[in-house]
Design brief:
This protein is α+β, with helices and mostly antiparallel strands and 157 residues long. The protein has six helices and seven strands, in the order H-E-E-E-E-E-H-H-E-H-H-H-E. The radius of gyration is 22 Å and the shape is elongated. The mean pLDDT is 89.
Length: 157
């Protein structure tokens, strides 16, 4: 499955027990994607619940929220008993070791701790500990994070 925000949202929704369908379509003449009712990328259902999902990449959440809040169809969706979620998929850099951790690892290594022991202590690989001690660098791990925000009728003022 490609790494688009829609794909990440689908995986999240399916893990939460929803049956999902992509509701946006690609219009080749316009060379753009068109959302169902102007705001829905995914429709997700489970017993007693229907959910409209608008997905976006990093940094576009407020634009998508504004788009939905300006949509009479979104308001109607909520009045009909549906729910709306905004999903923002973004890459995040997670620090694997802090500067104090690296200093402590260096000290422990000089006192005889093995790289394997240090790796277990900091829950990282031996290679990460070696590199951090050698270069004094903050090792990072790039991960995807899915931020989810629910909109309700109260948001429409």
């Amino acid at each position: 499955m490609p790494s688009r925000p829609v794909s990440r949202s689908l995986r999240n929704l399916e893990s939460r027990g929803y049956e999902c369908a992509i509701a946006e379509k690609y219009v080749s003449q316009a060379k753009r994607r068109i959302d169902l009712f102007g705001f829905i990328d995914i429709v997700a259902i489970q017993p007693g619940e229907i959910l409209a999902v608008q997905t976006t990449g990093s940094g576009n959440l407020s634009k998508r929220r504004t788009k939905i809040l300006g949509s009479s169809n979104a308001h109607l969706w909520l009045e009909a008993g549906g729910k709306i979620e905004l999903h923002e998929a973004a890459k995040r850099q997670k620090k694997l070791m802090s500067r104090p951790s690296i200093r402590k690892a260096k000290r422990l290594r000089n006192e005889g701790a093995t790289y394997a022991e240090l790796a277990e202590m900091y829950d990282v690989s031996e290679g990460t500990v070696r590199k951090a001690i050698r270069e004094g660098d903050l090792p990072t791990n790039e991960t995807w994070e899915l931020r989810i925000e629910e909109l309700t009728l109260e948001d429409f003022g």
